[in-house]
Design goal:
alpha/beta; binds S-adenosylmethionine; single chain; 11 helices
Length: 283
């Protein structure tokens, strides 16, 4: 099933249709979508690549912590939007972190079948307590009206990978990170500004009126908030974060950018940046 869907997703028109259909299913019946994710197809489960993928995220977090002289041991971590597997948390446990909290708008990672338990055991058996997460280390947080259910100034490092482009209220979310991060604490956020629906290499999606884009795709995994790089920089600064480092990347050709410069009222930076990493420190 997974292979068939992956093949279909390679065909652009099918991908757009699947995005619209999954959006409708999730809107009409979130519980049916949950069943589909659990039994037929979970785009957030990478099977045997789970370990490799979370190690890659862990390594990036660990490298930035080292670079900014912020040792992992005894620190409290929070991951935003981990997807289907909490392996990064298991690597953090192994590296001596004090705790790993996690919050996702949908808990795709709840499934703890024998295969997944095996993956966690390979990384660090103490990440689990028999067949559940070790709840003295792993804290699964939820959202309430105030934001993340987390005490003010209780987290040392917040990180996310390919999440902020999917957050429906990014300004409020960054304000909330400022609330829960300790003074001097660090944020590491990799954001993917590319199109997730039509064509990753094109800026066409930014020409679709926002109301129509939201109407068609709001509930599907490919929906993005259409915010660009400068929006996030301003949001971090406005909320009391110092920018330690920005790593912008561009995958668009000069001709492509010039073509869309005429159609979109965006700065050259916002047009050309296709992804970016922010490393920030709470002042
Ligand atoms: C593209 S996936 C990225 C997953 C993973 N971090 C990775 O590296 O592949 C985006 C994730 O962000 C989650 N998400 C969307 N809005 C969120 C929010 N407001 N807070 C936390 N997670 C959110 C989604 O449910 C999904 O798991």
């Amino acid at each position: 099933m997974k292979k068939i869907i992956e093949f279909l997703l390679k065909i652009k028109a099918t991908k757009v249709m699947i995005a619209i259909v999954s959006s409708i299913i999730q809107w009409v019946s979130p519980s049916l979508w949950k069943k589909i994710e659990t039994h037929f197809y979970n785009p957030y489960d990478f099977d045997e690549r789970n370990i490799e993928y979370s190690k890659w995220i862990f390594t990036r977090v660990a490298d930035f912590c080292k670079k900014y002289d912020f040792p992992i041991d005894e620190k409290d971590f929070l991951e935003l939007g981990p997807w289907g597997f909490l392996g990064t948390g298991a690597f953090l446990k192994k590296a001596g972190a004090a705790s790993y909290s996690v919050v996702d708008s949908v808990n795709h990672f709840e499934k703890l079948d024998a295969k997944t338990i095996g993956y966690y055991q390979t990384i660090d058996p103490s990440f689990l307590n028999r067949d559940t997460f070790n709840d003295t280390f792993v804290h699964i947080l939820k959202y309430n009206e105030q934001g993340i259910q987390c005490t003010n100034e209780s987290i040392d490092v917040v990180f996310s990978n390919a999440v902020y482009e999917h957050v429906s209220n990014p300004a409020e979310s960054i304000q909330d990170l400022a609330r829960i991060t300790r003074k001097g604490g660090i944020g590491i956020h990799q954001i993917d500004y590319r199109d997730h629906i039509f064509d990753q290499k094109s800026l066409f999606f930014l020409t679709v009126p926002k109301f129509l884009f939201d109407l068609l795709f709001k509930n599907c995994g490919g929906w993005t908030n259409l915010k660009r790089h400068s929006f996030f920089r301003e949001a971090f600064i406005k909320n009391g974060f110092e920018i330690l480092e920005e790593i912008p990347q561009s995958e668009y050709s000069r001709e492509h950018i010039a073509k869309y410069r005429e159609k979109l009222s965006l700065s050259l930076e916002d047009l050309s940046t296709s992804s970016g990493c922010f490393v920030v420190r709470k002042k």
